[in-house]
Amino acid sequence: MGVESRDQPETAPAAGPVAPRRHSTKARLGIATALVLFIVFGHFRTTHLWNARVPYVDYADPPSSYDPLNPWVSITPSVELEWQPCYDFINPLFQCARLTVPLDYNHPQAQSCASPKVHIALLLLPAKKNANISSVRSPMLINPGGPGGSGVLLALSLAPALQTIFGEDQPIIGFDPRGIGYTTPPADCWATPPPCDGCPEDTGKGLGHRLEWLNMNAVFGSVNSSNIALKYLEAGQRAVNDMCREKDSQLDGQSIFGHASTAHVARDMISIVDAWERRADKDQHAAAAENPTKGKLIYWGFSYGTYLGATFASMFPDRVGRLLLDGVVDAELYPTPMWRDSLFDTDKILGEFFRLCAEVGTKCKLYRDGDTPADVEHRYYSIFDGLSANPITFTHPDSFFPVIIRASFIKTLVFSILYSPAQLFPLLGILLDFLYERQHEQLAALFQDPQLHCLLPGNALTGLLTDAQRVIMCSDKIRPVNMTLDEIRSEFEAVAETSQFADLWTGIMLQCNNWDIAKPHRVASEPTLLQAVKGSKIETAFPILFLSNTYDPVTPLVAAVKMALAFKDAGLLEQKAYGHCTISAASLCTALAVRDYVLHGKVPPPPVVHGKDYLAGRWTTCEADQTPWKQYNPAATASVSAVDEADAQDKQRLLEAFRSVQQAHVDVQKWTGGGHDINRLLIRLARSDVVWAELQGPTCQGSRSLTTKGVNLLES
């Protein structure tokens, strides 16, 4: 780790528990990953309650209908943290709770039809060295981004790895922000409003309507797929927002839609911290006073989670304990109608694919003998030109239904892959080669069997396919967005000057056009945060640490520099890699810096910039140890800088834990809708004659490689 001048910005270098009673660690991790994907694809039942308390269920004698995959319906909401065992087939230490908070913090009366409540779903991995649930150390809260990402799902996968990084005495909490996941009420515009007080919503019917609508609108592709696409896509978003407004009206303005801004979630985090401290004081008495972060927030937020963290710090600067903000959102840009500068580095990452593919040769399946980066790039664009002129059509060989593959669909997959190049660039080469060779049977793996739709009438898609991203993102706008088609087209063209993925980005931004659900009582936060970004620094109780890759597809380094300058003494660490958030590429240097910040309070120095050129300056940098198509060996990386065997083992465990965090974040990240596509791609390719196989040998134990007919296609 070192401090480096950025006066001449460089091109990024080529990129990177207690055992359960019945399962091995390896099996347990596999089950955790499977559960996350199980939830993503909606294969099990969930129930949402609207402003209703769930009867208490004793885990010693659960009802016959108890579902271990969905424990939330059996947990009674409470204003205190009442932890109950859950998901013990993944980890026997997991605990769940539902914390009741006001829907409107300005009117925190008892729950009634006029004053409903929010019940926040929390998943805890408690400290292992204490018998009590609460620990002397404050818990670390985590947020995967979005907006709309589930902290519960993230914690299911990565909480044990975080304890490996920060110590077994570090409690980890993943929570679903209001409107998201297992927190109730859900941000769901599609579920039919209840016909009477206390009646449940018809989420099944709403899900059916939502899926029908999504399929109907998919025919238009992206905003520039045709000369009529933008008109109909914008009309579709207006129609959905009209429906959301109608539902809010039927609920007398007491829906979650007007009470789900980031500032509301920041208040919820204070409620979580305060509830934790009340429990700690009760359980530990004097011991809790020894905690230096008592009553303060310990937090690791990714992507949109950095905006949540910055909002928290602007509202409650004296409650900042440790804030890791990774993959930084520009707080000045985020509340605007169109995030113009978010794609500042996106195309540079795609350019790295062309360069690396030519460099690694036949390891990249799109490579042809003698290729230069320009040759690979030309082949890439020829694929899209071909799809635009003649979309691929065929009959699904297994399920017998017609398939059409258009350029916009593949472009969405490519955009998703740019989030995690170290892991997924090899997969991109495979996908593009299939398209170039028009190998239809391989491409069929991209599409779900229609028979799966038969499972829809009671599965978890009702919990995942919500309007949380729309509701949160649009609630955070400075003022209602109501752009004309010409204005939208102008914004698209401005973004297109920076990135070829402007069409996908504009599609996300369209969600807020015509969203004007009233905010009954605006929670003050944005003015303070915006003032800080524009020059009036916020002083927090402990300095924030901002982290960014050199090239990030949606949260560029320039945003991290800008945000670090908005907070007094905030540190900045640039990881010389590309991908979304620093965990997209492994780095021992970064891992050590993150651990030292949380455990020992060591903060890298603030960035020093020259004028308004945020990329011309000095700050701390770390090299990445993981690159695409290169076998990654944590043991070898750790041994290079180790002073002795114990130090080498410690660093190896740290790197392996960071790799687990990396994979978990890939699984559940939902910054864009493309996240679902890439997960589907991985799973469906795995079920074709491209299969996941374990790599052999001590240097690759536990990693996975795509193999076809016995030939390794990935080295990870």
Automatic annotation (TrEMBL):
Residues 501-605 form the Peptidase S33 tripeptidyl aminopeptidase-like C-terminal domain. InterPro entries: AB_hydrolase_1 (IPR000073), AB_hydrolase_fold (IPR029058), Pept_S33_TAP-like_C (IPR013595), Serine_prot/Carboxylest_S33 (IPR051601). The keyword Hydrolase applies. Pfam families: Abhydrolase_1, Abhydrolase_4. GO terms for molecular function: hydrolase activity. Residues 1-21 are annotated as: Disordered. Keywords: Hydrolase. Residues 139-389 form the AB hydrolase-1 domain. Belongs to the peptidase S33 family. This is TAP-like protein-domain-containing protein. The lineage of its organism: Eukaryota, Fungi, Dikarya, Ascomycota, Pezizomycotina.
